[in-house]
Amino acid sequence: MSTxxxxxxxxxxxxxxxxxxxxxxxxxxxxxxxxxxxxxSSITSAFERVDFKQEYREFVTHRGIYKGKELTVMSTGxxxxxxxxxxxxxxxLANVDLKTRAVKKEKTALKIIRIxxxxxxxxxxxxxxxxxxxxxxxxxxxxxxxxxNQTDFERSVSQELKxxxxxxxxxxxxxxxxxxxxxxxFDMVKGNTVTCPGFYGPQGRVVRAKNALPDLMDNLxxxxxxxxxxxxxxxxxxxxxxxxxxxxxxxxxxxxxxANRITNEFSSEPGNVVDELIHKTLERI
Length: 285
Prior knowledge:
Layout: E1 30-34, H1 38-44, E2 49-56, E3 59-66, E4 69-75, H2 80-95, E5 96-97, E6 102-103, E7 111-120, E8 130-138, H3 152-165, E9 172-175, H4 178-184, E10 189-195, H5 216-222, E11 224-225, E12 228-229, E13 232-234, H6 237-247, E14 250-260, E15 265-266, H7 270-284
Parallel strand pairs: 1-4, 1-7, 7-14, 8-10, 10-13
Antiparallel strand pairs: 2-3, 3-4, 5-6, 7-13, 8-9, 8-14, 11-12, 14-15
Helix pairs in contact: 2-6
């Protein structure tokens, strides 16, 4: 039986994985994720009890009970580079024997639900919308380093967006979990999310640095493939969906729309929009 090397998967002296500082018994099969570490406690404050807490860098973990359901809530920080770390180590907790370093024969498929904030890139998706990401498009280069299987449709979208945007590399398009979409987002707007490797230039913002792709926002806003259009910006979802597919987990991204980039509006009550999304997710999980 082949084993994973000590440099490919680093395990701390206490038996926890390197960045998350967690052991297999510290997580559950259903995991809610947020970007902001402070939002973890805002979710678990609704729990009947919290049985475990861990914090290391931006990775904060609480495990507890909500209405009899055992759940884990974790923060990831921002960006798909963090999602690469997060999902690889989370999968190792579920599917690798950390003592022998062998992959387990019986695999566990985790349910991972991102509760995040996002900005709309379509005029008809107003501030306050709750949006579930059907597909995600990564404008980052993470999947350059992995062998990702895509459907013909996803590959076609990826190729067309490279031509449309003028990016020097091919973006990647990946669908999320249809089962979680049906369970959690039956009354939410279904959208297709663009994941960017930054908040300013990569999302078409201009402050002082000159933007090399000044037409990016318009090109993404106007892209159509039949009924498929791009609806919102953020910084993690495509990484979630791609890593989830590579590792065999069910992943869904839910977005509280706090800004509309076309109408230049920002929510006057962003906390309320996020709280509504959190409440709906907890009740349906």
